[in-house]
Amino acid sequence: MDEQRRHHATARLPRVRERGFEAYVAGAAGRLLHAATLLTTERPGRAPRAQELLTAALAATYARWDRLRDEDPYDLTRRELAARFARASWRHHRPRGGVLSPLAPRERLVVVLRLYEGVEEEQVAALLGLPADRVRATCARAVAVLRRAA
To answer: Is the pLDDT of residue 101 over 60?
Structure first.
């Protein structure tokens, strides 16, 4: 009988894991997709590259889901999204008409993380491997470009 109970309890764990992750995605995916769309400069509703970035970032989060302890899954997914965008930014250099299209990929990444996501300057600097003053200058320059374009 103990073997049967143990098997039943083990069979429930993946479902509990999946439900927790599904609840997380239901709450966070919209905002994360919007961030990805800003990064890729695609139009909302027609953003296959942004969808691809988000799907890959969520897959990476899901792979670590059981090992998350005190780590915020949103922060993990956002970092993964930013890292994937940075690695593939050469694909996203050609503007597609989004509001951030006048900016270079790194400028878009800094603006989205700092101003849209509200990530602290030091965290953005650590994520991108840049000094904090460079992040500050990049953000200021990007904002100036956006003001001129408006």
So the answer is: yes
- pLDDT band for position 136 (cuts 50, 70, 90): very high
DSSP class of residue 42 equals P
Q: Which residues pair with 43 in a beta bridge?
A: 46
Find the domain containing 43 and state its range: 30-149
Query: Residues 57-75: what's their mean pLDDT?
Result: 91
Domain count for the chain:
1
The answer to the question of residue 105 being in a domain is yes
Q: What are the distances in angstroms from CA 19 to CA 12, 13, 129?
A: 11, 10, 35
* 3 lies in some domain: no
18-36 confidence digits (pLDDT tens): 888 999 999 999 999 999 9
Count other C-beta atoms under 10 Å from residue 50's C-beta: 27
Residues linked to residue 46 through DSSP beta bridges, in sequence order: 43
Backbone angles phi, psi at 44, to 5 degrees: -55, 140
The answer to whether residue 8 is domain-embedded is no
Q: Using CA atoms, how far apart are residues 37 and 100, in angstroms rounded to an integer? A: 10
